Amino acid sequence: MKQFVQSSKKLQLKGKKHSSFGYKRTASIYLSASRYSNVFKTLIKNSKAARTAFKNIMVGEIKKEVSELCKAKHDTVWRSGSKNGINAFNQFSWDSAVEETKRFCPLLVAAVSSSLSNNINLQRKFGKTQVSLLPNLGCILGQIVFARKPYTMKFLQEMIGLQMWMSGTSRKAFTRLNHLGITLGTDATRGAVDKIRQGFSKDLTEMKEHLTRNNRAAVQIRRRLFDEEDEEGDGEGVAILDDTLPYAEESDNEDANPNNGRDEDATSLNDTIPFEDEDEVEAILADDLQEAVMITPAERQGLEEVNEVDNEEEVPENELCLYSLVFDNVNKHLHAKQTSRDKGNIMKNMVQAYAAVDRIPTGHLDDKQPTPAEVAEIPCTVFLTNEEEVKTIRLDYVQQVKEVLVANIPCFQNLEYEDCRVHLYEQHSSRKSNLIPLGVLDKDEARIAEMVDIMEDYHQYVPGTRDENPVIIPLFGDGLSVERGFDAQDARINAGDPWQQLQGLHPSIQEWHKRGILLQDTFRLLYSQKSARSAGSLSYIRNSYRQINVKEKVSACFNEATELLRFSTTAYIVASALTFMNCASIDDIPTDLQTQQDDLLLYMSEIAEKIVEMCFLPPNTVSILNANTSQKDIYKYCVCKNDIEEDMIRCNNKKCNRGKWFHYSCKDITNDEILSEEWYCCQVCKVSQTSSEVKDDLVYEYSQMLLWRGIGEMIRHKAIRSNNGPKMLMYWKEDMVEFFKMGHTKYFLCGHRLLMDTHGALSLRIAKQLTWNRTVNVHGGVNRNIEMDLQMEFFNKELKESLKDAGETFQKRPWQDMGKWLVSQNN
């Protein structure tokens, strides 16, 4: 027998082929040869009792495996994930889930896998692509463990329930699918949502505490250095320090403050706030105490100097960024099934907010607030565009016209030109924004008392402690919300400290609602249904190209109205270019078209300059700046308004209101320069003088106005998409005149506050934060930024859809919990 087993020859099976005992002898021979697979195959194939026994063994083993997997001592992936928050769902992987299950249940996983696919890699070919069947296997395993332990092993059902909840599935579907083991019921799903929402502001709270520790550590390090120097001096160092660090609080007893020296947080200070090294500061203190303190009020830099960085390497990358809050009101109209004197429709007013972490660091800048005397010295010129800014805006118009010409006229295609609108923080602005929803409050911001409650709720996210002044952060909103925010602070003006006065939040205006105001003014001027038969009008273009969703009230059709204005502006630019090139269509080639690349680029630039010269109509700000000055005190010539002995030149526009006669030095004209017969002090005078000759041509004036406002909308949106903060502020200056003329009082006041805040009324740190962190980038990428209040509108839309889908369940739940379980949808 041993010789037979050790032989390499093929086993010779004897006996009758169909004998009832022959398969047993065959199985024994296979068993003696350790060929167990053949043993099982032989027995299962020929014996019913063996098949039953094998099945019972497999059933028993799989039961043991599943029971072991479901034991409480094993923290498996299939256990409820809502208790661990949203991170449990973000970190979930089908690969890890299947591998973990395979360790406990190898027989179960092998049996289910073999039934899904013949491929060992669990892949199936669909067309030319290979599709993994791991999610199918994972879903089957998740339903098996859920059937065994439905109260604990419900991760898959929670995940499916959350997906259905966020997609607006009818609540009745949860009950029906729960019977199939696919998802949880309505109450259980809502419970999972409630658990997830509990940590919705955890990241923001941790960031706030980190900023608070860093601020306190920085104050303590600098105070210790000055206290050591003050022991040898006369105490002037401490006075200077307290004057420059507004958040420092003196301690009467040095021993009472155990962190007065170097504490635990101070060791990591250089990783967060780029203050000077301690040894370097002590060396400076030995030479001159004044050089070690922060910037004094007399040495405060302007925001322009702060923004002017030579290269991107000078931007601190490891700086811990702050954050801004954005809020807006949400209105939900609740319809009653039956109305009566005691019961009817209700308009429910709520408030929703989110936090946006800054992408451009500002914590390294001076955070000392200016004195009232310094604020009073802010000139009126910061509210209106000056000559240099008008030139910059005109260059933006030319740049935008070039883009349209290159995109729509064949002879200009493939031309490469330099974009002068690229700014320093392009890379920072292309990063994906970190948005943290802060929930929904059952408060009505139209009531001052409830607005105070709203501000108190948001004030909990302000960095700092009660024993020091708060670190001010912006609170962005639309014009009405900003006004109500200031009203709430005014209502608390008599409180005892800055925390009770709600001074840690600074309401500030945003961009999207401003675009809506300007767009509505444009349609008031240029859109009328009576002009539907006038070729070239907005109403005519709207009807001709079937843009039927455009209405006179643009708040109901913002995107459609914007698209109509841009489409019409593009058509006017192309038509104007063809007129200047003496072409009948875009396919015609101009007779004076240049062939060289540089000459062709110069030719296109000349065409763009002509188009902009035709429509560039900036507001006249000279009369506004001189409105409050006595006529006797004004030197009525030149822009400088100073009577100096210097040669002057006269503007050819007889109605020039900028000074008529101008000094050569003020207009950068040399005596040796040969002037033309007609000289104009600015583009406004040149255009107005030209247009006076055709003042009866209303079609020409309509074309001018459409180009002026259409291109203006394009460049404003371009600045937002690229997160170009200084340009956005520059456009605010230009729009201040229109806000005043058109009666937009709220936005005129909000613009006044914004320009004050960014030009000296607040610290340099807040000024830069208001300038460069005015947008969010939801998905990441270059030129993909959007306005903060526009993202708030997206959140409001999701909230309203959720409230609509909630149905009766929504009205049964307490309103205090609404913001807690609905906010998770934003995550």
From TrEMBL:
Pfam families: DUF6589. Keywords: Metal-binding, Zinc, Zinc-finger. InterPro entries: DUF6589, Znf_FYVE_PHD, Znf_PHD, Znf_RING/FYVE/PHD. The keyword Zinc applies. Residues 637-686 form the Zinc finger PHD-type domain. One of its GO terms (molecular function) is zinc ion binding. Residues 249-270 are annotated as: Disordered. The keyword Cell division does not apply. This is Zinc finger PHD-type domain-containing protein. It comes from Mytilus edulis.
